[in-house]
Each structure stands twice: as C-alpha cells, then as structure tokens.
Specification:
Layout: H1 18-38, E1 43-44, H2 46-49, E2 51-58, H3 64-70, E3 80-85, E4 88-93, H4 100-115, E5 119-127, H5 129-157, H6 160-183, E6 187-188, H7 190-220, H8 226-258, H9 264-282, H10 284-303
Parallel strand pairs: 1-6
Antiparallel strand pairs: 2-4, 2-5, 3-4
Helix pairs in contact: 1-6, 5-6, 5-7, 6-7, 6-9, 6-10, 7-8, 7-9, 8-9, 9-10
Length: 304
Amino acid sequence: MSMELIKPGIHLDFVGKIKYAIVFSIILIIISIGSVIFHGGLNPGIDFSGGSIIQVRFLKSVFADQIRAALKSTKLGNSTIQQFGTNEFLIRTSESFSDQKMLSVNVDEPLTAAFGKDFEIRRVEVVGSKVGADFKQKAIIAVILSWLAMLIYVGWRFEFRYGLGGILALIHDITIVIGAVSIMNMEFTISILAALIFIIGFSINDTIVTLDRIRENVKLNPKQKLIDTINISINQTLSRTVLTSLSVFFTVLALYIFGGAVIHDFAFALLVGVVIGTYSSIYIACTIVLFFENLQLSKMKRGK
C-alpha cells in the first residue's frame, strides 16, 4: 500500500498563481545577485583562493579576541578566526603554512606564550593559490557542462521547450542558493559546490517527473488547453513531489541541527536548494513550457 499525503483527485490551481510566482522568483534573484555584488563577489574558501586552515583546540575557555591578540604580530595577524565547537577554533589565512618551521614560529610559539601548553593543533590544511584558481575554473566548467548535458538529454527525450524549462529552473535554483550562501556570508567551499551538484540532480529529477506527466497528458488529450493539462499534471504528481521533497528536507534538517559545525554550511545550502528546487519544478519549468506554447499560438494567429 503506497503512502499518500495528498488525496487523489485534488485540483489546485497552480497555473493561476504563475504571475505571483514569477514576481517572487524575480525578487529572490535580484536579492541574490544584489548580495553577491554587495559583498564584492563570493567569499571563496581556501579550496578556491588558496591559503591555510589551522584548527586549534584549547583545554580551557578562550575567546576569539584573545587568540587574535596573541597572533597580532605574526603572519596570522590578518587571519579570520572562527569558533568551530566548544573551545575549538578555525584560523583561516591566505598564507601558505606548508613548512613546519613557519607553522611553529607563527602559531605554536605565540599561542604557547599566551596560553601555555593548554592547546592542541588538530588539523592544518594548505592549498596553493594556483591550485585554488585552477580548481575554481574547473568547478565552473563542470557546472555549466552539467547544464548543457541535461539540456541536450531533456531536449532529445522530450522537446526543446521542456529541456529549456528544466535548465532555466536549474539556473534559477543555483542562483538563489548562491545568493543565500552570500547573504549568510558563508565561505564558498568544496562542500558548497558539492551541495550545488546535489541540488542540480535533485531538481532536474523532480522536474522531469512533472514534465513527463505533462507530455503523457498532452498525448492523451491533444485538444485540451495546455494550461489545463499542466495544472492536471502537477496535481497528479503532487503527492510524489511532496513525499520525496519532505523526505530529503527532514534528512538534511537533521544533518543541519545535529551534524555539527563541519557540515553546517553544506546542510544549509541543501535545505535552501531542496525547497527552491521543488518550487521551481512546479513553477519555473512549467512556466517556460507554457510561454513557448503561447509564443507558438501567437505566431500561428499572425500567420493567418
């Protein structure tokens, strides 16, 4: 017996709310792009910009300002210090600390002078600036190629308008998730990139289910208005969409609440992506399909 949150035969007027959805999406996109511009671009982590992350655990209660004061006269004087857990801190810097002697002079010695031996360096990550820049370029290419591949596949599997609807929905989702990351002033790390790749897969899967049902219903009722076919199709797949999205959402929410600081940003990006991805599958992708249909009808009328 299949579980259904939404009773069969429901008929909500999704298409009737498309105008409001478009305005809502435009506002979200403007805020997202505005935030990135306001912050002078994304805040790249060391994966993309190069530098070092040093994780330090203290045995007693310590404040970030005390650590900053202890490192003031070192190469870590302008570093970012972020609390990572109970008495644990991440020290982020654009300097490369691959040399053990350099690490000792700039971290061990000044911290020992300020706090004695009541600390432990738990992790040191170093990425060269050239490696970071190369990685950033490859990451952008990977995302764009994934969009193109999906456009070709969905366009071939269905029709071009369906493929374009799916890809514009993905661009919509990624823009808003990046905007949310920017608004929260989170570092754009490899974890956030992984979240974006997951969102692309989740969103296109959800979109294809809806588009496939639209295509089936168009074949069954070719004389029916597309606006009605889209509404019926969304309602028919609504139970599946809600169940799938809620399952993923609550799983990611558990990661966000209980997963700890390490995956906090990753889980946040996923939470935003799941909500926006579900919304765009219904409104953005279907709006593009409807737009192309209206465009075709207006051309036919002009031709007559």
